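step: validate -> pass
step: tokenize input -> pass
step: predict -> running
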Amino acid sequence: MGKSSEQFSQYFEYTTPVRKIIYITNTVEEFHCQIRKVTKIKGAFTNDMSLLKLIYLATRNIEKKWTAPLHKWSLTIQ
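step: predict -> pass
step: emit ->
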């Protein structure tokens, strides 16, 4: 088994609530997914500045979600 396979197998050794928290807190991937969703809908951009403005506005909307507490964190931390 390769190193990545071993690390992935270790993931399943955690309890279900902990695995859910690990999955949910993958902030970089979630951010990337949200940006991709916004830019994919638009399609083509007239220039780089229009793309940057769209990413800026999407980032502002995404940041609002970052202040929310994690779902069932108190149960998981126990």
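step: describe -> The radius of gyration is 17 Å.
step: cleanup -> pass
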